[in-house]
């Protein structure tokens, strides 16, 4: 790079390997050529095209950091670059992608038995089996440890459990064939993970109604998981892991992905705002990009995006070496989501009244970024995780 590049101000790309850059290019091309043309209608109609996961599967993008089971087995940095490419188009598309890859496939890869992995992961890697991840409940979001969903031995069928309870705000649940669900084993009161296979559930035992009329993330599909004595074979209970460390281990990967993804959304906001500011003229024919206050908004956002990418890449390298700690993930998830939202809101002002038109895309990113700051641990919750690590004192309750 011979001179300053506002699209990569700190030359982050020089820290990526050739393979990582090639993977990023494949993902960017797919996202710009195949996802971008769909997103405006998808967002307007609140319509998630279920073919998207299969298309991503054909390109080897799903569960890309998983080794084996027809997954690509790429580095965590490469997987972050894919996430950034997807969210550059829309956070909702990234949500569908992350839940499939990091939470559902990631959970199965980390905790299921070898037979269950063999049975489900290759189909999930191709996007032919769609997954969801159910942790949040109507009464327990930030505090999943208080969940009410329970699992008990099937009253009539040996070798099966039955699950009862409700999960809400679950990405992909209405379209998922497999659902990774966390519930308390009635006998011990301990949280366990279960792979619920929709095809094994008799009518009335599993319902996944969509949640409609969202004012953000409209290009993704969200729903509930309602279980009423829903049967699950014993071998579908994750054998080794018990307690909250199960779901949180999955969340470590998904939160890491969001830290990359939100930087993609912010970069798209910068690109759109810069283009608009150069074209829009006010006061004696000057482009508004000439005015200092507009330039400051672009400078702030570009700086935060550049810092955010380098921080995510550093945590990715540490993950690849097995040296990343959950608090590092909390730090980049919180910081990148917060800075993406604050900057996107400031950049939205550059569009004046046109910001209100969905054709300009900026309002969609702002509404989406509010959600990214809320799910997978709302930012204040990550402040408390960091505060606990810094002081040794627990502030949650
Ligand atoms: P706490 O005492 O902190 O921990 C309980 C046990 O879990 C272990 N643990 C972790 N293990 C691995 N990775 C982590 N990040 C971990 N964090 C905690 C911990 O060591 C302990 O293990 P053990 O062996 O001692 O039992 O639990 P707490 O109940 O005090 O937790 C508090 C808090 C606030 C940190 C936690 O509950 C929290 O993070 N809340 C946020 C909830 C959340 O993130 N929900 C996400 C739902 S999924 C989602 O939003 C998907 S959206 C996806 C999309 O569409 O893109
Ligand atoms: P609450 O826990 O009620 O929190 C409300 C507010 O209170 C927040 O600002 C929070 O920070 C604050 N607060 C709570 N406790 C404290 C405290 N001790 N100290 C200070 N402040 C506190 N979940 C899944 O399991 N799977 C999914 O796929 C999934 N997808 C989602 C998709 C969408 C579109 C949305 C909106 C949510 C999704 N979620 C999913 C749920 C998400 O993880 C929760 O919304 C999130 O964890 C927050 O929980 P809550 O909404 O119950 O808020």
From TrEMBL:
Residues 17-128 form the Acyl-CoA dehydrogenase/oxidase N-terminal domain. Its EC number is 1.3.8.6. GO terms for biological process: fatty acid beta-oxidation using acyl-CoA dehydrogenase; fatty-acyl-CoA biosynthetic process. Residues 132-230 form the Acyl-CoA oxidase/dehydrogenase middle domain. It catalyses: glutaryl-CoA + oxidized [electron-transfer flavoprotein] + 2 H(+) = (2E)-butenoyl-CoA + reduced [electron-transfer flavoprotein] + CO2. Its cofactor is FAD. Belongs to the acyl-CoA dehydrogenase family. This is glutaryl-CoA dehydrogenase (ETF). It comes from Lineolata rhizophorae. The lineage of its organism: Eukaryota, Fungi, Dikarya, Ascomycota, Pezizomycotina.
């Amino acid at each position: 790079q011979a001179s300053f590049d506002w699209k990569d101000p700190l030359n982050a790309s020089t820290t990526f390997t050739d393979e990582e850059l090639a993977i990023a290019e494949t993902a960017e091309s797919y996202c710009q050529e195949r996802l971008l043309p769909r997103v405006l209608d998808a967002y307007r109609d609140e319509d998630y095209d279920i073919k998207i996961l299969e298309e991503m599967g054909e390109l080897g993008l799903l569960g890309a950091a998983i080794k084996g089971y027809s997954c690509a087995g790429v580095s965590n940095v490469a997987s972050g670059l894919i996430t950034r490419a997807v969210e550059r188009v829309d956070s909702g598309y990234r949500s569908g992608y992350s839940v499939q890859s990091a939470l559902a496939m990631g959970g199965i890869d980390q905790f299921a038995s070898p037979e269950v992995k063999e049975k489900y992961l290759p189909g999930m890697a191709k996007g032919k089996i769609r997954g969801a991840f159910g942790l949040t409940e109507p009464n327990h979001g930030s505090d999943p440890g208080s969940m009410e969903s329970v699992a008990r031995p099937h009253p009539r069928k040996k070798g099966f459990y039955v699950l009862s309870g409700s999960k809400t705000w679950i990405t992909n649940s209405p379209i998922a064939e497999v659902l990774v669900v966390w519930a308390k084993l009635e006998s011990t009161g301990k949280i366990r993970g279960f792979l619920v296979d929709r095809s094994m559930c008799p009518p009335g035992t599993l319902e996944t109604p969509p949640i409609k009329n969202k004012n953000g993330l409209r290009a993704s599909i969200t729903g509930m998981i309602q279980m009423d004595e829903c049967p699950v074979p014993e071998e579908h209970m994750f054998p080794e892991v018990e307690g909250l460390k199960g779901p949180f281990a999955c969340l470590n990967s998904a939160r890491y992905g969001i830290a990359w993804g939100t930087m993609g959304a912010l970069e798209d906001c910068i690109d759109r705002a810069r283009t608009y500011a150069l074209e829009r003229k006010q006061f004696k024919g000057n482009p508004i990009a000439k005015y200092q206050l507009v330039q400051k908004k672009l400078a702030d956002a570009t700086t935060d995006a550049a810092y955010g990418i380098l921080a995510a890449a550093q945590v990715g390298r540490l993950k690849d070496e097995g040296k990343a700690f959950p608090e590092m993930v909390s730090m980049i998830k919180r910081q990148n989501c917060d800075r993406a939202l604050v900057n996107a809101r400031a950049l939205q002002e550059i569009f004046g009244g046109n910001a209100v038109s969905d054709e300009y895309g900026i309002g969609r990113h702002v509404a989406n970024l509010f959600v990214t700051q809320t799910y997978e641990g709302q930012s204040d919750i990550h402040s408390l995780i960091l505060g606990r690590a810094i002081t040794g004192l627990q502030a949650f309750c």
